[in-house]
Amino acid sequence: MRFVTIVNPQSGPGYAPWWKPNEDYFREIPKLNKFKNVQTVGYLRADYCNRNVTDLERDITEYAARPSRDKKPELAMEGIFVDEVVNHYSDRALEYMDRVDGFARNVAGFRGDRIVSEHAL
Fold first, then answer.
1. Most buried one in 12, 25, 32, 87, CB count within 10 A?
2. E runs forming strands in 1-121
3. What is the dihedral of CA 106, 97, 12, 35, to 10 degrees?
4. Closest to 113 measured CA to CA, from 67, 104, 58, 85
5. How many domains, in total, are found in the chain?
6. Residue 99 burial by CB count (10 A; 0-12/13-18/19+): exposed, middle or buried?
């Protein structure tokens, strides 16, 4: 059995000065990543596809960059979890989610390539 663990420091990766990875983050994420049946994914808030896509791209980049920047490869997420997406199809929502998906799949730094969302379009 495989478990998905959503890592949500601050409705996204968290940024200084309010939040930055602390000793708890540096200690616990590597413990989770040691389990072969645990998939860690970074949390993103889409605000029902109203949040600016460039903000999500910045968050994706932050999750992906953290392991190399902090010289701790054991912090790598396997992918991202997109929350607060729409649950009714629209061309706009599809375009929005396709952009987020494409960006995440092309950013180096994730251990896997899985994108998880709250609702499927």
1. 12
2. 3-7, 38-45, 79-83, 114-117
3. -60
4. 104
5. 1
6. middle
Residue 7 lies in a domain: no
Residue 76 in domain: yes
pLDDT tens string 68-86? 998 999 999 999 999 999 9
Question: Which two three-digit tokens encode residue 48?
Answer: 């029902």
Q: Within a domain: residue 64?
A: yes
- Burial of 51 by CB count in 10 Å (0-12 exposed, 13-18 middle, 19+ buried)? middle
pLDDT in tens, 11-56: 899 887 777 788 899 999 999 999 999 999 999 999 999 999 999 9
* Structural tokens at position 72: 């701790």
Handedness of CA 32, 66, 108, 42 (dihedral sign): positive
Q: Tell me the C-alpha distance between 83 and 46, whole Å.
A: 6
Crossing angle of helices 53-69 and 91-105, rounded to 10° = 20
Instruction: Supply 60's token pair.
Output: 């994706």
- Could you tell me the residue range of the domain that residue 76 belongs to? 33-117
* 3-state SS, residue 27: helix
